[in-house]
Amino acid sequence: MDLFRKKSMYRLWLTVLGTGYSPFAPGTCGSAVVTVVFLLAALLGASPFLVGIIMLVLAVHGLVVTVIYGDRLIAQYGPDPRLIVSDEQCGQALTYLCFAWMRPAITGSKETIIFALVGFVLFRVLDIIKPPPARQFDNMKNPWGVVLDDVMAGIYANITLQIIWWLEILR
What we know:
By secondary structure, the protein is mainly alpha-helical. The chain is built from 8 helices and no strands. It has helices spanning 7-14, 26-43, 48-77, 86-96, 99-102, 109-129, 134-138, 143-166. Helix 2 (26-43) runs antiparallel to helix 3 (48-77), helix 2 (26-43) packs antiparallel against helix 6 and helix 3 packs antiparallel against helix 8. The radius of gyration is 16 Å and the shape is globular. The mean pLDDT is 88.
């Protein structure tokens, strides 16, 4: 049985376990799911490498699901429907990819939580303001446009998070 082809399953993936149906800030809710997964993995003792692999899998999954199945909800609800939050899943996971090589600078649970919260806020802010070329991707009005603006926000958030951390601004 192909789980991605069943109507209920592709909606489940596009809405990141239903968070896209949230009446309040569905994109933020979808990003929060990734942040919780990151924190659980990091705080429960997964190696930095494994945390990085988990984030990479979530990023690729969010990208693939959005590109392959996003057109179904776009056709039904218009360009970049609020229900699709798999793009936020992708971008938020990209934000945390740097944890794999930054772990030596993050020494405890408190720092891990701060790292996660700063990454969450950075991604959400950058996803909202959409610095170039994210805004241009957002204007594409197709599944690639839906996800690529979040990919850019995730890359920008990742780089900014590393700079903040290595300059010891929040430590």
